[in-house]
Structures are given as C-alpha cells and as structure tokens.
C-alpha cells in the first residue's frame, strides 16, 4: 500500500489495520518520516481507547517513539513535533527537557496557531514544575495571540479566552489565592457561559459568597438542561439552605425559584394542589422580600396559570410585566388575558431582555399553548406571537455567530439550531417560505440534524422547488438513518416519491416505490408493532399513500396506464375504503377513457365521506372530473350539476382556488354541456364568460380559446344565426389555422350541409 492509502485507513479509524500495513511499509521505507508520523497517530488513538493501564502506557510509549523517529529522519516535520510536545506535556512524565525543546522549536516556526498550542503545552510543564510566573507569562502571551488570530471570529475567540482565563484561575486557585482565581473564573464565564466548568465554579462562587456570579451560573444551568439531575438538585438544595439561613440576595432567590420549576415534585411535593399552594407561598414570600424583582410575580402567577386559574394569574403577570417583562411572562400574560377577558390583546410588550435561550423557551411555551387551544382566531394570533418570540431569539443568536457581535449567552450552537428549526416552522405556518428556507439553512449549518432538512424540504416543496426538496430528504435517508424514527423513515420515502413523480423522474420514483414496499413486507411491518398505535396508523397511512401514488408514476411500458390502474385496483382489494385510491383512479380512468369507471370512482370517494375536510382544490376536482366524465358520456344535465357544484366550492377558496384560469375551464365545460341540451342561450352565456376572462387577463389565443369559441359558433348556429357562426369560425382559423373542428365546420358551411341543414329542418 502507498502512503495515501495508509492515510485513508487512519481517516476511516481502522487503526489496527493501518498499523499492520505501516509496519510492512516501514520495512521497505524505514526512513520515511511521514510514515512514522502516521504510525504515531495510530498508536496514540489505540492508547486513548485502551482500558488496561499497562497496555495503555505501552502504546503511549510506542506512539512517542514513532513521533521521535519521524523527527529523527525529518527534524522539520512540524506535526510530528506538535504531537510529541502534546504527549510530553500531557502523557509522558519524564520528557520535560524534550518537550520544552519541542515547544521552543514550534514557537520559532512563526505559525500563530501552532505557537498557541506550544505555549499551552509549555504552560502545563511550568505548572507541573511549580514555575508559576513562567506559566502565567505563557498563558497571557497566548491571550494576546488569540486576540490577533481570531479577531474576526468572536465565538472562537471567546472559547480561546475561556480556556486561558480558566487556566489562569486554576493557577491562582492552587496557589491559594482564591479571590483572584474567582475573578478569572468570572471572566472565563462571560466569555463562554455554556461550558464544562460551571458546576464546580458555581460551588466555589457560593463558597466565596459571590452570589451575583452564582446566580448568573445557576440560570444557565437551569435553562440549558445539560447537567445531571442529582447535581442540579444538590446545588438547588444548597442555595435553598443559604436562603433559609438568612442570605438576602434577590438574584440568587430568583434563580432558585427558576430552577425548582424543573424539579417541582422534589421541592413542592407530589400532591398537585398542595404543591401549587406551596409554590404560591414561596412566591409571595419572595415578593415580600424583593418587591421590585419581576420574576417572583411571574413565578407566583405561573403556579395559578398551570392549574388553569387564569383570572388569578393575570394580575401577577401584569405586575411582572410592569416591572420587567421576562419572555415567558409575555406569552403567559397574553394567554391569561385572552382566557380571562374573552378577547385577544391588541398587542404584547417588548423588552430588551438579552438571553436568547429564554426567548426561544418562551416560543416553545407558546407552541404548547397553540396545540391545546381550539379557537382558530386565537391560534392564529398566538402563531404571530410565537413568530415574535422566536424572532427575538434569532436576532440575538445570529449576530453572535455571523456578525461578530453580541455576548456568549448566544453562544450555544445547538440551541441556536433548535431555535432556527422552530422559527423556520413558524415562518412556514405563516406562508413565509423563502424566509423559512433561509432560517433552516442557518440552523443546519450551525448544528446539522435531520429535522432541519425535513422542515426545509417542506418549504422547498411549498414553493414548487421539488428538486431541492428531494435533495434534502435524500440527504436525510443517506446520512441520518441511525437517528431517524421509523415513522419518518416511511413518510420521507412517500414525500420523495411524490416529488420525484412531479418532476417526472419516474425511474427514480419507481425504484424508491419498489424499495420501500419491499422493506415494508420484509421488516417495517414487524418493527412497527413495537410502536404506539398513533405511529403505527401514520406508517400504514403513508404506505397506503405510496401505493396509491403509483397512479402517477409513469413507465415506458406499452400498457403503462393499464398497469397503474391495476396497481390501484389491487390495492383496493386489500383496502376497499381507501379514499385516496378512488381519488387517484378518478384521474386514471378518465385518461383511459373509462368514463363510467371514473364516475364510479368519484361516487365511491364521496360515499366514504369526509369531503368537507379535504383541501378546496381536491373538493373541486371530485366534482369537476365527474362532470367531465358525464360530459363525455353525453349526460349533460349531470355534467352541468357537477360543474356548478365545482364553481360553488371554488367561490369559497382563495385566489389560487378561485383563479381566472380555473373558472374559465369550468365555464367552457358548462358551455359545452348546455349546447348538448340545446340550451343555446346558456351555452353562449358561459362562452362569453370565457372571452371576458381572456380579455381582462390579456391572455393570448391558445387551444382552449379555439375550443370554447367553437362551442360558441355551434351555439350561434343552433340559434339560427349562421352569419355569426361563420364569423366565429373564421376568427378561430385566423388565430389557429390548424384547428380541425373549425376546418371541418367551414367546409360544411361552404357546402351548405351537415348540422346546419339538420337544425333548420328541426326548427321548421
């Protein structure tokens, strides 16, 4: 194997195989520094994963020796030097001189990023050697370099500063200078509030009676949800003990109350009624102590809110907002006002509250209230408020990550990504699809998880960008199978097949169709038995949708249409009440000129019921297609009834449902049906409706124009106005010279034969 192939094995984490191949390679190329460096990397990874201490130490030694061999053959191999310095500072206890030498050589290279690593390794050596001044000098030098290195990358700069300040604090702490240590820990926290040192630092801050700092950290711990429950309980109980002992500090008391919400039973008991009273009592006690702190009014009101006592909760929220509006106070005040007053507030308060996660959390609360609210107007208003709350969070997160401003309270990338997903979904609900796509893209770039792609695909689909929707969902199926719930695995297949069909990528759609149905038979049907009934029902629904979607997956087969019809008819043998199957067969039967079957499919769909729950466009199509089929069978009265029903449904819709194009199509068929009944006046009425639409929309002549104008000519002929008929025929041929019905009619008129003669005799 060559060196490139060996590097590929390392990148694939096949370390043992790579080591075996490297040993063979080094027998032939013993002076290849790059190969020795790669051997060191593999050995280092093996050592990190080793459970047995003796074997771990042995592997570390072989890794160190491999890096040393690389430097023996190429002293300029900087990465081997960096890795050996890392091991000397962190693993090997007897390599002080070599490590200090390595660090100096790395620093002499001039690469700022490598210099900071060398300074860190040397800092660790100085700490072990009790060379405190040298250690602090190196870490302060690192700080200076980081400010230069990451001046345009605030999140990265803050992480680097956090590490430096924390290490400086540790030096002072271990030298028993706790006040200075605490000051550096405080600076570190402000740089990166979401960090792995918060719990220990919080205990230290309480020990040092720095309650402002402790309150800041406790808030992050309470809202981030990233610490173990037992650790959170211990710290909250410790704070409770301090408060019970007489410590007076409004911020610490506030964060204690905030934190207990997630541990309600542990602090307020298992009985809901008694616990609510205890929470109210706690809130009132702190209101008496700290009447100018908004949160205690919120806390008390929330106890009442959670038991549905909105009228009692409302005054507390009004007081809280009057002092300072917390994000979650805004949503609960808004909802309590609506439930108490029976009407929606005209608006909601705004505030410069600066913690992004709390805005996001308030948006989540709003989502939960929307789910339980039945009133459509209230849901609509709450959705606007939800947008406001998520937008406020987004407006704090985005500048920190993309504009180099803001504070590290917006520095949690996964929180930002979750906010983007929820905000994007809200924008989708409000029809802002382009903006939703942008927000989902930002979120996915921050922390890629499949929900972002699924939500973005929905927005792409709604905009008619089906290829983009397919690409997002195919990416989910390629990269997120291990975390994708089964119910989504099936539904995503259904949506991809639908969009591939719309794109007329029929071969891909058919391949995916066959794949998912085979998997359903092989394992999905078995695995889904472990799911809840609701999820099983969703899977079955999507499988049925996939089967009925076969109606539109065209193939190159000579019997393509018949094959698609047979597929749905076979499905109906298993699921005789599948409304979607009848709906889709409606199209297929019509296309296959099986008009009786088309009408039968529509009648079966209507008999199943639930028509009013369908989108208006689907309701329209049901009557529209039955009317067209009746017209083909010359059942003119039935056709007219269905077309008029279509118009009635259409009138209830929005601009897309009740569009001029849709109306014109129905008018044309009504004109044709009335002609069939020899009701020439109504036929002309609807033909004229079509011409008026074309004029008002400034549409050019097309095939539809020729068709309804020809109906108009026949209606004029039926009324006995041959001159008007000839003029219309001439106009048709002027605009559409190849329109065969008009050509035939012109010939018939010229020969004074055909239908005109018959009609004249009829009138006589």
TrEMBL record:
Which residues belong to the signal peptide in this entry? Answer: none
Q: Which InterPro entries match?
A: TPR-like_helical_dom_sf (IPR011990), TPR_rpt (IPR019734), Ycf3 (IPR050498)
- Look up keyword Repeat and say if it applies: yes
SUPFAM superfamilies, per database record: TPR-like (SSF48452)
Q: PROSITE patterns given for it? A: TPR (PS50005)
- TPR repeat locations: 294-327
Write the record's keywords in alphabetical order, separated by commas.
Answer: Repeat, TPR repeat
Annotated PANTHER family: TETRATRICOPEPTIDE REPEAT PROTEIN 6 (PTHR44858), UDP-N-ACETYLGLUCOSAMINE--PEPTIDE N-ACETYLGLUCOSAMINYLTRANSFERASE SPINDLY-RELATED (PTHR44858:SF1)
Protein name per Swiss-Prot or TrEMBL: Tetratricopeptide repeat protein
Source species of the chain: Chitinophaga flava
């Amino acid at each position: 194997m060559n060196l490139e192939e060996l590097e590929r094995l390392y990148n694939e984490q096949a370390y043992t195989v790579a080591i075996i191949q490297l040993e063979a390679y080094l027998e032939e190329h013993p002076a290849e520094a790059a190969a020795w460096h790669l051997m060191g990397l593999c050995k280092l990874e093996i050592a990190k994963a080793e459970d047995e201490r003796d074997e771990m130490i042995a592997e570390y030694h072989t890794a160190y020796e491999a890096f040393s061999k690389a430097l023996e053959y190429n002293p300029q191999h900087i990465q081997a030097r960096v890795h050996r310095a890392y091991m000397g500072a962190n693993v090997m206890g007897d390599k002080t001189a070599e490590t200090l030498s390595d660090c100096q050589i790395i620093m002499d290279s001039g690469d700022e990023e490598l210099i900071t690593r060398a300074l860190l390794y040397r800092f660790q050596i100085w700490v072990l050697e009790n060379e405190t001044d040298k250690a602090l000098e190196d870490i302060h030098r690192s700080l200076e370099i980081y400010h230069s290195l990451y001046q345009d990358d605030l999140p990265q700069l803050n992480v680097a500063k956090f590490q430096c300040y924390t290490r400086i604090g540790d030096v002072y702490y271990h030298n028993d200078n706790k006040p200075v240590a605490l000051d550096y820990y405080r600076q570190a926290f402000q740089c990166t509030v979401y960090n792995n040192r918060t719990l220990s630092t919080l205990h230290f801050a309480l020990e040092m009676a720095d309650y402002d700092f402790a309150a800041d950290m406790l808030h992050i711990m309470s809202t981030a949800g990233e610490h173990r429950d037992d650790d959170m309980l211990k710290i909250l109980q410790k704070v409770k003990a301090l408060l019970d002992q007489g410590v007076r500090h409004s911020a610490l008391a506030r964060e204690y109350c905030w934190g207990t919400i997630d541990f309600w039973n542990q602090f307020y008991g298992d009985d809901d009624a008694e616990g609510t009273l205890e929470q109210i009592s706690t809130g009132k006690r702190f209101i008496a102590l700290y009447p100018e702190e908004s949160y205690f009014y919120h806390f008390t009101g929330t106890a009442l809110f959670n038991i549905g006592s909105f009228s009692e909760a409302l005054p507390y929220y009004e007081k809280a907002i009057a002092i300072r509006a917390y994000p979650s106070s805004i949503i609960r005040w808004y909802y309590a006002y609506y439930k108490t007053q029976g009407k929606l507030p005209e608006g909601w308060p705004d505030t410069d509250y600066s913690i992004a996660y709390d805005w996001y959390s308030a948006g989540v609360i709003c989502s939960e209230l929307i789910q339980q609210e039945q009133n459509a107007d209230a849901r609509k208003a709450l959705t606007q408020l939800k947008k406001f709350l998520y937008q406020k969070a987004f407006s704090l997160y985005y500048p920190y990550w993309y504009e180099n401003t803001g504070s590290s309270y917006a520095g949690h990338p996964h929180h930002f990504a979750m906010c983007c997903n929820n905000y994007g979904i809200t924008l989708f609900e409000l029809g802002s699809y382009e903006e939703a796509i942008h927000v989902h893209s930002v979120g996915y770039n921050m922390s890629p998880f499949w929900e972002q792609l699924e939500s973005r695909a929905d927005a792409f689909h709604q905009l008619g960008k089906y290829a983009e929707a397919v690409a997002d969902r195919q990416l989910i199926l390629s990269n997120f199978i291990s975390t994708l719930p089964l119910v989504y695995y099936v539904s995503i297949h259904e949506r991809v097949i639908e969009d591939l069909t719309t794109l007329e990528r029929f071969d891909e759609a058919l391949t995916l169709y066959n794949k998912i149905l085979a998997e359903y038979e092989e394992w999905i049907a078995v695995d889904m038995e472990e799911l809840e009934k609701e999820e099983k029902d969703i899977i079955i629904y999507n499988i049925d949708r996939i089967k009925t979607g076969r109606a539109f997956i065209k193939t190159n087969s000579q019997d393509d249409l018949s094959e698609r019809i047979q597929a749905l008819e076979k499905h109906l043998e298993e699921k005789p009440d599948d409304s979607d199957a009848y709906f889709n067969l409606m199209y297929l039967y019509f296309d296959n000129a099986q008009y009786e079957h088309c009408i039968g499919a529509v009648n079966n769909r209507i008999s199943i019921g639930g028509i009013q729950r369908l989108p208006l466009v689907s309701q329209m199509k049901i009557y529209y297609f039955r009317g067209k089929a009746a017209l083909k069978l010359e059942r003119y009265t039935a056709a007219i009834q269905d077309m008029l029903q279509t118009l009635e449904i259409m009138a209830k819709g929005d601009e897309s449902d009740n569009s001029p194009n849709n109306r014109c199509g129905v008018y044309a068929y009504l004109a044709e049906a009335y002609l069939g009944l020899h009701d020439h006046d109504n036929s002309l009425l609807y033909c004229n409706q079509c011409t008026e639409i074309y004029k008002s929309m400034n549409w050019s002549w097309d095939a539809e124009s020729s068709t309804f104008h020809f109906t108009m000519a026949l209606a004029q002929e039926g009324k006995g106005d041959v001159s008007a008929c000839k003029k219309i025929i001439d106009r048709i041929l002027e605009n559409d010279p190849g329109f065969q019905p008009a050509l035939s009619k012109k010939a018939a008129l010229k020969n004074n034969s055909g239908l005109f003669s018959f009609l004249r005799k009829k009138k006589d």
